[in-house]
Amino acid sequence: MKLFTPKIIALFVFVFQYTNLFSQQLTPPIHNYSSTSYNAASQNWDIDVNEEGVIYVANNQGLLSYDGQSWELLPLPNGSIIRSVFVYEDKIFTGSYKEFGYWKKDETGKMYYTSLIPKLGKYAMQSEEFWEILEFKGDIYFRSFGAIYKYDHNTIEPVQNVVSNKMIVYKDRLLLALRKKGLYFLDVNNELEKLPNQELLEEEMIIDMAIQGRDLIIGTREKLYKYNDETFSLYEDSNLLQELKRSELNHIMSFGDDRVLLGTVKNGVINYDSREKTYTVLNRNNGLQNNTVLGFVEKYGNIWLSLDNGIDRIEIDSPVKFYTDDTGELGAVYDLAFHNNKMFLASNTGVYNFVDDELQIIDGAEGHTWNLEILNDTLFVNHNTGTYYVDGNSLIPVETATGSFKISELPYANKEYLISSYTGIRKFSHSSDSIYEIDSLNFPVKNVVFEDENTLWAAHPYEGLYRSGFTDNFTKTSFVEKIAIPDGGNSINTNIFEINNQLAIFNGDHWFKYNSFKDSLEIFEEMKPFRKHKLLLKDVNSYWFSNTENNSLKFTDFNKTIVVAPGSLGNRLVKNYERILKNGDSLYYVALNDGFARIDLNKYINDLENIHVSKPQVKGFFDLDGRFSLENKPVVPYKSSRDLNIYTSFPTSGAMGLKYRLRGEDTLSGEVNNGVINLQNLDHGNYELELLAIGPQANIAKKSSFGFSIKPPWYLSNLMKLVYILIFLALIGLVYWFNQLKLKKHQLLLEEKFEKEHQERINNLEKERLVSQINLKRKELANTTMVAAKKNEMLMEIQSELNKDKNSFSNEFKMKHILNKINRAIKNKDEWKVFETNFNELHEDFFKDILKNYPKLTNKDLKLCSYLKMNLTSKEIAPLMGISVRGVEVHRYRLRKKMALNKKENLTNFLIKNY
């Protein structure tokens, strides 16, 4: 029968928690949640579940909730024990002593409690505890042992003051089980009306009721009845009734069309099949924490139990069943085998057979056992003390010189074997009952694989691989060589297999194959997808592997079909000695460190299509200052965003796990542990958190998104950005203003420079003009002076000539008159005034400055100074002053004395230079 189609790409998920399992039967996976794990009181009175799969439990310390990720305890304001819990829409109704109300989440995801007692007004409630809550026609009914109350979502009113044990809605009627009075229903006027034909129930105390199809199942302490809207009938199953007498019924749940789950006070859960009239019991001996079942509820194939001590979950129809020995007698199982209609277990304490759910050790089989091997219809045992085979219920020794790991049949030989022992390889002939030790292979050998009829490969427990050739029918070795693992690979726990007629070597990390042409190992390309996966079982065209990292299981037929069994089952495998055995078309047995598991592979594959995967949700968002509303996108202040905690809800389902992926300014991803995602030191900006539920095929089965944003720091806020923009604009304006100012200043400087240059040009022109004028005047003055000097010189010469010949003139008076006239012409003051005026125009303040320094100078001294200033010689000065050259020299001498000049100082140069 074909197990797989190309459409099936299955990843088997076993998320099992196993504690305190002890049984003589195979049991489904049972998960225990103790009071230490949920951190509340041990006693749990009732249990319910919402549409998403979140579990709510009525606990001695308050309301417990479990969202698949973490437990949360919500105490009542008065700290009272909660006796009942009921989920209706978005409210969780609870009942306790003289108190009932509901819990509801606020916008931040936090649960808060609203008491309904104030709505009773002046009604005087007795000392009542509320043990049951249900919904009928949209209204909520609360039941105590003394009364029934109705809540229409507006008001509370008492309906009936009667002593009742149970209420249930059946065929649109609210039924009440009155103490030893039978079943009644409420009519349209809320009056009690008794169901007809209840003779069977007379004087019976009804404990619980459940609906199965169209029938009503009714339970008393020791009996089970069925009501079909007309008649009552007793379950005619003496075995069941005897079990109920021993167990004492407490709760009923219908499960499917023919099964009923019965929660008891003394013996856990009875799983009863009414069609087959068979039942199994799940109690403290085979997995439950406690035998007293106070409530249960079903969701997605999981049965949740509220117990007198703890909370349990049963995967009631799981294709995986377990046998677990908590006594330690069996120990860790190293191998399994089926032989002669018996199941044999090889463990560290001996060899056992398992028949009719009973475990029995084989005589003489005590001690560590490594391997069971069926060869030629004989069950061989590789034991710490030697090699044996099973005969009936006893072990018959093959050889006991040393312990052995494995026995292998020789190719092309009849009943001849090689024993891989602690000290080497021995050849065993079953037909002649002889043992031959091969001297050349004198080291420990775990197992051997034959390359051909004369060559074998031997795996050393610690030193890797050896290849050996044999002659003389495997009695002598022709060669023994050690095989190096490529790239310096690990030699310890190296294993050798034959896969598709290829020698395959696995060293815990990589797969290699032997290339006979190159006589070396090379990477086994076809096995690359199974890196770090050790081969456990080769079955026709399918294979089982175990992961060396997490000890999980993986199944494949190399036709795109891969099945994974990680988690708790893998954690129970015997590390480095994992073993799986097939028995039948679809049943596989897995050796565990405390028993074994049985997997119905066909059922598991069929169940994959119906596996429910919960949708993950965010249930709380916290920063350093508190929690945020989940109705709107949280906006976190930057100063509070250094440490963010996001609480997730992921109700129990068939998912392999929950991962997250954060997109935004920072990108992060990882697994969600304990329902909390901690994000630290995120940058400001917008973020999108994706929650990814990993389905049973290792794909993303469901996902949800949650967006939030982190405000920028104050210095990057919008207001500050506006300030920065304004500052930037102000800076631009300031730079512009400064540049304009600088440009204007530069322009003014240029204008000033131009004006200065222009003025300088004008001044230079004016100066040149003035210089020209001065030079011209100087020339004119010089010319005038020279003319005057020449004139005076000539007059003086005339005067001198006349003086020489004055006696020759007849008219002496006339002569004298002429000489006086010439003398006046020489000493003409008008010429001096003209000279002085012109001289002052050329040498302004000359006389003023010289008089300031030499105030005793006379007019005649000043006249001499002016002529000297003009750089005139004594000869030129004499006629101007009307004296002789000698007189000029004398005058110069006197002037020098008045001016107290050094003898070496030239008078003319002194006057020109300083005045």
From TrEMBL:
Q: Name one Pfam family in it.
A: GerE
Keyword Flavoprotein among UniProt keywords: no
Membrane-crossing residues?
Answer: 714-738
Keywords on record: Kinase, Membrane, Transferase, Transmembrane, Transmembrane helix
Q: Check the record and name the InterPro entries matching this protein.
A: Ig-like_fold, Sig_transdc_resp-reg_C-effctor, Tscrpt_reg_LuxR_C, WD40/YVTN_repeat-like_dom_sf, WH-like_DNA-bd_sf
Matches recorded under SUPFAM superfamilies: C-terminal effector domain of the bipartite response regulators
What name does UniProt use for this protein? Histidine kinase
State the species of origin.
Salegentibacter mishustinae
